[in-house]
Design a protein that fits this description.
By secondary structure, this protein is an alpha+beta fold. The protein contains twelve helices and four strands, in the order H-H-E-H-H-E-H-H-H-E-H-E-H-H-H-H. Helix content is 45%, strand content 11%. The relative contact order is 0.20.
Amino acid sequence: MELKEVIGRRRTIRIFVPYRPVEREKVQKMLEAARRASCAGNVMNVRAIVIWREQADPKVIKAIAPRIGYQQMHTAPVFIFWYSESSVYHGDAWPDSVLRLADARRIGLRVEDTYAEVNDKLRPMFLMAGQQMGVAPLAFMDVGQAVAQATLVAYEEGLGSCLMSSPRLEKVAKMFNLPETAVPICVQALGYPAESWEAGGQTPKPALGEMFFDMEVGKPFASDPKVEDELKAAKLIDEPAPLPWRDAELEFLMRALGLENTLLNEVDP
């Protein structure tokens, strides 16, 4: 599939085929996509723990379950625990990473000049701001970009996923012996979809002009009908949910998989 079609076909999948395992190589492809995401200073603060349901302690599966997320928690064969490692911004780690960008010819014009500017002018700023950067929005944005790339690769590989978060993730971090510098971001349920992407349809979103602005807030970014037609042809824009047979599909899957008609996980607080 082309990139636009992958984006257009992506759905949040909440009901997976529980008996079909996810191939390890497909998870590796997701992680490689995450490893190649854009990141400020190329510090690469994204980290992840892959949790295979069949190998995991049931206490771990129960602990990572958010309050809302019944079906995906009971059917996904794999979970990925994504977190940000803030230590990559501490001390000399951040400026040293920028120097490696110079070595790779990704920043600056002349390596010697770039080294001098980083060491003489920027390093003191990096050392002063490092602790704050580790928990700044930019750090979390970089993890988000990595997760997004991994998610698109998952869909290209025929998998589905559901991203979840919960205040309980801070407690879960202790189960994995994460360092104090780790900041949990989300859990991604992963597996082969039991529900079809066609039946769900594309989740309705606010109009373009409600979300994005031209030069100033309140001045909508105007949508060009020709561009909309182009994106429909490329399959980025698809039929909105729900499609006519969606209810029947959900009822069938609930019965077939023995799932309850509830949104909530009955987990300990």
